[in-house]
Design goal:
five-stranded antiparallel sheet; 63% helix; SH3 type barrels; 5 strands
Length: 177
């Protein structure tokens, strides 16, 4: 008797759950198929030949999978009449996570950039300087706003982030002509 009072609600709940399940199933299947298709184009190998090591095939397959998860979730929630509220929550959550990832990706960039500006304007390091910073001794062969490259007396090239160069004790031995 309880089912006869709310047949539309029960139907919508079952349909919503089935649609969400189908979205998960389709996301898993299509991501595997997409990964195989992308691997047939050998995108990762081509990028590796160019000197770039980035898993494009896995990234695209993951985007397809999670995109279908999201579409299935949104269509399933539409049957439950929760689509507008939850869509707002999901969008704000995605934007918040995106903002968090962007901020975390700049975590090392911003301090190194500011340290690079400080080193440049104060003239602490110049190209050709023979320096000793902490335990590294050698000639400064390259400088930019993020890092300094120092060729050691052994011939090794040490890439030192500007933050470490600025925090360390810089001893200038002499400047090479």
């Amino acid at each position: 008797m309880a089912f006869t009072l709310y047949p539309d609600v029960l139907t919508n709940i079952v349909a919503g759950i089935l649609i969400i399940g189908f979205g998960i199933f389709a996301g898993n299947i299509l991501s595997v198929v997409a990964k195989k298709v992308f691997q047939s184009f050998e995108i990762d190998r081509i990028l590796l030949d160019l000197g770039l090591r980035f898993p494009v095939e896995e990234l695209l397959a993951a985007l397809i999978k999670y995109g279908l998860y999201l579409v299935g979730l949104l269509f399933g929630l539409a049957f439950l009449k929760l689509d507008q509220i939850l869509l707002s929550i999901v969008l704000f959550s995605i934007l918040g996570l995106l903002l968090l990832f962007i901020l975390l990706s700049f975590r090392d960039f911003i301090p190194n950039f500011i340290a690079g500006l400080t080193i440049y304007f104060k003239g602490k390091l110049r190209l050709g300087d023979i320096v000793e910073i902490d335990t590294i001794e050698g000639k400064v062969i390259h400088m930019d706003m993020l890092e300094a490259k120092i060729r050691t007396t052994d011939g090794d090239v040490v890439i030192m982030p500007n933050v470490l160069a600025l925090k360390g004790i810089i001893i200038k031995k002499r400047k090479m002509p």
